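batch_manifest entry 22 of 60
target: GNAT family N-acetyltransferase
source organism: Streptomyces tagetis
requested by: lab member K.T.
priority: normal
notes from requester: please return tokens only, no post-processing; we will run our own comparison against the previous entry in this batch. if the run fails, retry once and flag.
--- input ---
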Amino acid sequence: MSDDGGTRTRCADRADAAVIARIHLDSRAATMPYLPPPKRGHEEVTRWVRDVLLKRCRVWVAVRDAEIAGYAALDGDLLDHLYLRPDLRRQGIGTLLLDEVRRHSPDGVTLHVFQQNTDARAFYAHHGFTVVDTDDGRRNMENLPDMTLRWTPDTAR
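--- output ---
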């Protein structure tokens, strides 16, 4: 658990699934308007969070004033998801979650980001991630060009 004064991280549990699903849907809609409309509604995404994401990944939530503000999901050394409530962006919450992920990934972290997602790309570049690969979209369900980014701690280089 870490804390930035008003926000702390903790491991997510099944009771968090509906809130994580809402953050997932709301964040994608607000920050990635180029994505096609979601094919799955809140109930289906909640089931996916509860039955797939929480079982496959290590998931942390950032909590501010007793409310979940964002989440991060780590699958091995792959940062599968990092999403924040749209109204709480640029307040250090993403950094807090990313720091938690990196603490649990001593050999480094890999992630995929859409090439169009310039805000996310800038965020990860600011935190030391570099581009290791690009793709034309064949490897993601949205069929949009993406990039693979990698962060390796100085001690592991």
